[in-house]
Prior knowledge:
Blueprint: E1 5-9, E2 30-31, E3 34-35, H1 36-46, E4 51-56, H2 61-66, H3 71-79, H4 83-93, E5 97-102, H5 109-114, H6 117-120, E6 125-128, E7 132-135, H7 140-151, E8 155-160, E9 170-176, E10 181-189, E11 200-208, H8 211-218, H9 229-239, E12 243-246, E13 250-253, H10 257-269, H11 275-283
Parallel strand pairs: 1-4, 1-6, 4-5, 8-12
Antiparallel strand pairs: 2-3, 6-11, 7-13, 8-11, 9-10, 9-11, 10-12
The protein binds uridine 5'-triphosphate.
The site of uridine 5'-triphosphate has 20 residues, from α5.
Amino acid sequence: xxxxxxxxxxxxMGTRFLPATKSMPKExxxxxxxxxxxxxxxxxxxxxxxxxxxxTGRSKRSIEDxxxxxPELESHLQMKNKDKMLKLVKDISSMVDIHYIRQKEPRGLxxxxxxxxxxxxEEPFAVLLGDDIIVNEKPCTKQLIDNFRKYGRSTIAVEExxxxxxxxxxxxxxxxLDDSLYSLEDIxxxxxxxxxxxxxxxxxRYVFTPEILDCIKETAVGVGNEIQLTDAxxxxxxxxxxxxxxxxxxxxxxxxxxxxxxxxxxxxLNKEDMKEQIKEHITGIDL
Length: 287
Ligand code: UTP
């Protein structure tokens, strides 16, 4: 079965970016001239997704406005003959079918995904976290979809993380099947380095069979008093094999301040009209 639907949860509080995120979602923070969420939606589309479900919460109106038509801005740009900008703005609102579901309270990532159950309708689907940007010619989500096509089973993207950072990830124990694929044996949410089964962590991309939703339903509140997706994945793996895929690409967790700044620098250095000035600035910094 083709994977055409993606759930993008954006209902978290973004506390690491306070006070900026007091009235704006972290997913709308710009990386140069596009908000983070734009890159995530582009990845979904490039992976064959044509139906996106945003799980939104408080203060997320600006995401809806961003992907909606903006007649006033469009007529202003038209009047000023700013055709290139006009096209850019129009293209955004016609990118893909988008639906919005509200998570009443931020009760965790698992809970956020479960709110999409009715819309998912017993189909396999992708999940992309709205604050992870992943750069690669073949999109990370597409890599997972291809693995799903091959094995017909849920596949989660993983990467090696520094051992001292295991407490920020769902960490897997897996049996390596080849250079990039593991058969999942266990997954633990935010273990301390001493308790971590490895240093391979789940990042913000997943492809699931619809059975994950039944598992989330049965999942009790876990670490941080939240319904953890990690716990539901462990339950799913007991019923139906789950694979972990070491994706190819460069990931920026823009929900983290240092990673966010790194993303801005790298993207600026990749833009023809900016890179020389930015290089000059960086080399001129007195460190
Ligand atoms: P994070 O833990 O990275 O997001 O959740 P957060 O809670 O917003 O960030 P901090 O730690 O307070 O700064 C991972 C993803 O899950 C979503 C978030 O929006 C983010 O994309 N999420 C998390 C929800 O949609 N609902 C929740 O209840 C929790």
